[in-house]
Design goal:
The strands form four sheets. A nine-stranded mixed sheet has the order 2-6-7-10-1-11-12-13-14. It has a three-stranded antiparallel sheet with strand order 5-4-15, with no helix packed on it. Strands 3-16 form a two-stranded antiparallel sheet. The chain folds into three domains: 4-292, no CATH class; 298-412, no CATH class; 420-478, Arc Repressor Mutant, subunit A (Orthogonal Bundle), CATH 1.10.10. The protein contains 16 helices and 16 strands. By secondary structure, the chain is an alpha+beta fold. The longest helix is centred in the middle third of the chain and has 20 residues, at 221-240.
Length: 479
């Protein structure tokens, strides 16, 4: 058992999928030329007034209901004061003492099947800052203010995670949830879903938290895991050598695989929070909450529970298949087309299909292999037209060419041999060609059974039905 315990909390920033910004009418579309989507409100010009986007409020409430949190009947926007080149106002409008969502939780299922409950302290609305650009600007910094004022919900967890893998599992769960709710597109490459990780270590068994470091702006699950693991090792090495861990903000360098110091960690008083004088307190009444609740979709946990019951899947398999709404919909479309093969469908969607998608960096919605075509392949396995082994060969051709299973099977002559007489003839020919091995098998060397199976498969081009082959071969070998 390790002498040290890791303590992790995540602050996840999800960009809300509104068409306009949180306090202005500027567009939020990604990819516009720099500084073409920022108006005078976003830039904080004198005399302008922010107006709260109701859709951002609705999305925050949806999230709060989905994590079984408290929705505040009254919440307050505050000014978080700090200077940064891409923050032209000199402050960020956020929520501090009275957030719109608080006291929620999520359950995550780990790879070993263990269920962990992660508390969520708060989820508050705020505006994003602009973006500093360095690429292609040697010796200079460019400022793009298109992102300034884009609505965010910041989801702050309790320090309930004890390993990098737990943190990734939790982050993936939040990622799936915001996409199910359709409040965030979850695009990590574009920065619409990112997190800061607060990491500390303490002697195992002690209740007091260690000094934490905050790792900023992690925008991939892989980077989150690597950054946390590096930071844990760094802090343990410091403590075991008698040096203190300094509370600070750090950045992760993916090229070097390490974190480096960015600045000393700010506390709340450094930001001089105070209620924004231009925004009234936000009141959310019971009727508004009820209307939002009525529009909630089937959530990941609900869908996973239904998959387990309806399709006879393990909790882990159901969790994997419901990790994204698109994957869950694809799986159910496969099962509707091949209703007798729910478990087989799960194995193929999580196995061969997932591997093919990962290899090419595609989403299941890419359309490269439709659910109907995968179902057609599964039906040919079930009706014994092809074996599971041949099915993998058929799948590869279907993936590469976009053909149907039946077309591939016919064009390549892959139909499984189920004619008993044909299989028996092949067995007899193999036995006649291998008298020494036959004598050894009949003398008690049972392991040679696999040799004969392989030889018959070779003789039939891998097309003999495996179950029939085993049964007939066993009978023939026994004489």
């Amino acid at each position: 058992m390790s002498a040290w315990e890791t303590v992790i909390g995540l602050e996840i920033h999800a960009q809300l999928a509104t068409r306009s910004k949180i306090f202005s009418s500027s567009a939020t579309a990604y990819g516009a030329p720099p500084n073409t989507q920022a108006n005078l409100v976003d830039l904080g010009y004198p005399g302008v007034l922010p107006v709260l986007n109701l859709e951002a409020v609705r999305m925050a409430v949806k999230l709060g209901l989905a994590i079984n949190a408290r929705i505040a009947p009254l919440s307050v926007f505050a000014r978080k004061n700090y200077f940064y080149p891409d923050l032209p106002k000199g402050y960020q409008i956020s929520q501090y003492e009275l957030p719109i969502v608080s006291q929620g939780s999520l359950e995550v299922v780990l790879e070993d099947g263990q269920v962990r409950r992660i508390g969520i302290t708060r989820a508050h609305l705020e505006e994003d800052a602009g973006k500093s650009l360095h690429e292609g600007l040697p010796g200079m910094t460019g400022i793009d203010l298109n992102r300034a004022g884009t609505p965010l919900v910041e989801i702050v967890s309790e320090p309930d995670m004890r390993s990098a893998k737990e943190a990734v599992a939790y982050m993936k769960k939040v990622h799936a949830l915001v996409r199910y709710l359709e409040i965030c597109d979850g695009n990590m490459q574009e920065g619409s879903f990112r997190c800061d990780a607060n990491v500390s270590v303490r002697p195992a068994g002690t209740p007091q938290l260690g000094t934490r470091a905050e790792i900023k702006n992690l925008n991939s699950f892989r980077f989150v895991e690597r950054a946390i693991n590096f930071e844990v090792a760094r802090q343990i090495e410091l403590l075991e050598s008698g040096r203190p861990v300094v509370q600070e903000t750090r950045l992760y360098d993916p090229d070097k695989g390490e974190t480096r110091s960015m600045r000393s960690k700010e506390e709340a008083n450094d930001y001089r929070y105070f209620p924004d004088p231009d925004l009234l307190p936000l009141q959310v009444d019971a009727a508004f909450i009820a209307a939002v609740r009525a529009g909630l979709p089937e959530l990941p946990d609900q869908k996973a529970a239904r998959f387990a019951t309806q399709y006879g899947l393990s909790a882990y398999d159901a969790g994997v298949l419901t990790a994204s709404r698109e994957l869950a919909d694809y799986y159910e479309e496969v099962v509707r087309a091949a209703p007798a093969d729910a478990k087989l469908a799960a194995n193929w969607v999580m196995g061969d299909l997932a591997a093919a998608l990962n290899k090419e960096g595609l989403e299941v919605s890419s359309g490269k292999l439709t659910a109907a075509r995968l179902a057609g392949l599964l039906q040919r396995i079930s009706d014994r037209t092809i074996s599971g082994k041949i099915a993998k060969e058929v799948f590869e051709v279907m993936w590469a060419e976009g053909a149907s299973a039946d077309a591939v099977i016919e064009s390549k002559g892959l139909r499984q041999i189920t004619d008993t007489a044909v299989i028996e003839r092949a067995i007899e020919e193999v036995m006649a060609k291998n008298p020494a091995q036959l004598a050894e098998y009949r003398a008690g060397k049972d392991k040679l059974f696999g040799f004969f199976v392989g030889q018959v498969m070779k003789a039939t081009g891998g097309k003999a039905n495996p179950a029939q082959l085993n049964e007939l071969l066993l009978r023939k070998l026994r004489g």
